[in-house]
Amino acid sequence: MEKILIVDDNEILRFTLTELLEESGFECTAFEEGTSALKEIKEHHYGMVILDMRLPGMNGLDVLKKIKESDPSLPVIILTAFGDIKTAVECMKQGAHDFITKPFDNDAIILTIKKSLELKYLKQEVNILRKKLDENYRAGEVIGNSDVMKKVFEQVAIVAPTNLSVLIEGESGTGKEVISCMIHSLSDRRTKHFIAVDCGAIPESLIESELFGHEKGAFTDAKNAKEGKFELANGGTIFLDEITNLSDSNQIKLLRVIQERKVTRLGAKEAIKLDIRIIAATNIKLAEAVNNQRFRQDLYYRLNEFHLELPPLRERKEDINLFVEHFINDANKELNRNVKQMSDNVMEKLINHTWQGNVRELRNVIRRAVLLSKGETITSIDIPDEINYQTSYSTQAPASISGITKEIEKEMILKAIQEANGNKSKAAMILNMNERTFYRKLKNLGLS
Q1: CATH number 1.10.8.60 is the correct assignment for the domain at 313-388
Q2: Which of 167, 218, 380, 414 to pair with 124, CA 20 to 30 A apart?
């Protein structure tokens, strides 16, 4: 039961309003002036304040300002005469949720109160979700501090508590399944199953059985009855990855399941009721697939009740440092290593790389580098050639293969010297060269 504080100098109105709200299930306390009301708010918790503009002593606007100073989240509804609309608008600017003109309609004031409380609850829920999101991505479950990822996190916080179907689009390796898990874990379904299905990894002949299940004897190899993925996810969330891989006939079957909220196993006569949330993902623009008649429009609209777009890693380069730190820690635990950092030179190369495989590619590069590293710092010899030499290929065009080779050698040697702080013997060790070969190369490349 929500407690509401009424502040109005009209005794009849206080009595009438208190009676109306208590009949509607609220608990009420009423005061005739602002000073006593402010003291009450400090000493006791209230879910809402209904505040008259014209009060003895401190006026309503001043009381509102004091309330917002002590508790900005406490919703305040202003009571005002018709001629004081301008003042009421000023109160809205100062943080009031709404205003009601006197004399008021009973149904209208109850509706206004309920709407303001719903907005308050929604804001509280979003704040809780945001805190959970912060904890999650700080813990490494979801990583990102860039503006584009903050926007994604905010959208996740908004959609997670609903039952809307979500369509996630993004290149391979951008973390679509991670985000779908996040939506599930922040929803009311979090205690139920989360079932992920890669629609592209299941043969066409088996996809119907995998999704919807089958009875014993439904087809030649059906020696036992089997629950489908939708049954397994009942009450929870099903994640359909690479949804565009479904054939037209299986798209029709999926559409029927979504519309009817029932699934029928192959070979069964009775349907099973479903209470399920669907999250679908694709690495292409699904709207374009619809336009090209590769995907059903009616199914598209069923899946796309809420849309999320995940940016590629090359568009969120400010997050690469966070990923590197996280993946180094993970790899240390997995591989029993003690790598602590990455050289500035290597970090620069990682930031400048295009990352066609996105986060998944970066993770693999870091794991490999941790495995190969001979010390506490990852250097250029620990990362793949295509990352080491991308600058040479992209910024210059030597006239021959030998020219390319020399440019590569030159860059490697210069970087090794830089990492060795000018110590050429140490640079030779970094490159696994004996000193004689190293100095000969310095001379041949004009670096001596």
Answers
A1: yes
A2: 167
Could you give the angle at the alpha carbon of 78 between the alpha carbons of 74 and 80, nearest 5°? 170
Residue located via tokens 């830089």: 418
Can you give the pLDDT at residue 127?
63
User: What integer pLDDT is reported at residue 133 of this predicted model?
Assistant: 52
Q: In which region does residue 173 sit, left (phi positive, over 0), alpha (psi from -120 to 50) or beta (all else)?
A: left
User: Tell me, what amino acid is at 1?
Assistant: M
At 140 the three-state DSSP class reads coil
pLDDT value for 1: 65
**Per-residue confidence (pLDDT) for residue 391, from 0 to 100:** 47
Helix, strand, coil percent content, the chain, rounded in steps of 5: 55, 15, 35
Domain locations along the chain: 3-122, 140-311, 313-388, 390-448
Contact residues for 416 (Cβ-Cβ < 8 A; gap 6+): 380, 381, 427, 428, 430, 431
* Amino acid identity for residue 197 in this structure: V
E strand or H helix that includes residue 115: helix 106-138
Q: Which H or E run includes 196?
A: strand 194-198
Q: Are 280 and 166 in contact (CB under 8 A)?
A: yes
Q: What is the CATH number of domain 140-311?
A: 3.40.50.300
Q: Tell me which residue has tokens 């401190």.
A: 58
Fold of 3-122: Rossmann fold (3.40.50)
pLDDT digits (tens, 9 = 90+) for 146-197: 889 989 999 999 999 999 999 999 999 999 999 998 999 889 998 888 999 9
Strands 48-52 and 98-102: unpaired
| Crossing angle (nearest 10°) for helices 147-159 and 106-138 | 130
Instruction: Tell me the chain's radius of gyration from C-alpha atoms.
Output: 32
- Enumerate residues 6+ apart whose C-beta is below 8 A from 208: 250, 253, 266
**CATH code assigned to 390-448:** 1.10.10.60
* DSSP conformation letters of 241-260: ESGGGS-HHHHHHHHHHHHH
d(Cα 158, Cα 126) in Å, to the nearest integer?
6
What stretches in the chain show pLDDT beneath 50? 136-141, 391-401
Taking the C-alpha atoms of residue 394 and residue 274, their distance in angstroms, rounded to an integer, is: 54
- What residues are paired with 241 via a beta bridge? 198
